[in-house]
Specification:
Distance between the termini: 22 Å
Low-confidence stretches: 262-271
Number of domains: 1
Length: about 270
Amino acid sequence: MRVISLGGGVQSTVMCLLAEQNEFGVKPDYAIFADTRWEPSSVYDNIEWLRSQVSFPIVTTSNGRSLRDDVINGVNAQGNPWMTLPVFLTERNGEPAGINWRQCTKNYKLDPIRRKVQELLGVKPRQSISTETHIEMWLGITTDEAMRVKPSRNWWISHRYPLIDDIPMDRDECKEWFDALYPERELTRSACVGCPFRSSSSWLDIRANEPDMYEEAVRIDAMFRSGEHNANRMFRKQAYLHYRRMPLEEAIELDHTEREVNGFNNECEGHCGL
């Protein structure tokens, strides 16, 4: 079985469209989108549009929980008190204190996709995988992100990187290819609304294009530093969504000012969305 891991952003969308054109020699059997239930509306819109563009099935799955609700409630994917987001931390005196361990990608993206593949194979939970099983998982990692190429942790899944090995493209080339064929549509990075790994330009896009979600992210960011949230009790530090380690609203306003002054070249790297 050949499966596309679909994030709904630039690279995985272009990979799906190229696959539909038989540019990789064979079409996938499925594309699987893991819904964290905290995606920007542009991602959901893009997934629905893609369904009309490709002949192979696009399957939506999830771990059955809402990352948004879990973050608000200060619990992990098992419902236990914890913080799964890689929030930026400071000591009480404001000194940087590292980043929280990221578990959201595994718990809300990777694991649900793996379980859906097993379901499509007809394998029940806790049932052994046949030694004859082989899944080729296509990942939309581009040449500028080659450092993210890694072998699968599951013996029965092998990774394939069509945008590196078959048709080498970087992210900008993917956007150029898409814009040339679909000038009426715009693609954005796939990342959860409250992803701390958003670049400054991505936060500005959220503020401009998804105002309701932006306001909610501002409220959630402030909630982390309230006495009532588990993040405050768990870390005994201050937690922030923005890499500047400032309240989100203030940090984004500073992003806006600096982008006007210097073109905003200092973006943090987005690790999750494709």
